[in-house]
Design goal:
- The protein is mainly alpha-helical.
- It has helices at 24-37, 46-58, 63-70, 75-82, 86-97.
- It folds into two domains: 2-37, no CATH class; 46-97, no CATH class.
- The protein is built from five helices and no strands.
- Helix 2 (46-58) crosses helix 4 (75-82).
């Protein structure tokens, strides 16, 4: 399809339909539309960051590794994206440690 697109010679990876580059607003609109079609209510692209951060830590990844992969230089960003599921990860960790009832 790219070969037939009017912007086929553009160096941009994603080609828009109105000659504009694909940026955050296009991503937000595209993902929001697809989430609505799938019946997902309240979707926002940053939910993907929250989910990825939680899954990274839940799988045993380090906080430092997550910060590096996500491009975060401040620990407050780590806390922002991981705090929603912190209690779930703590409960899983407690079960794994098998220390009995706490």
């Amino acid at each position: 399809m790219r070969r037939t697109h009017r912007l086929a010679n553009s160096p941009a990876l994603w080609l828009g339909d109105r000659g504009k580059p694909f940026r955050y607003d296009g991503l937000h609109k595209s993902l929001g539309m697809r989430a609505k079609m799938a019946g997902v209510d309240g979707f926002h692209p940053h939910r993907l960051r929250h989910t990825a951060a939680h899954r990274w830590l839940a799988a045993g990844g380090s906080e430092g590794g997550l910060m590096a992969v996500a491009g975060w230089t401040r620990p407050d960003m780590l806390m922002r994206y991981t705090k929603a599921q912190a209690s779930a990860r703590a409960a899983d960790e407690a079960r794994t440690l098998n220390l009995g009832e706490l």
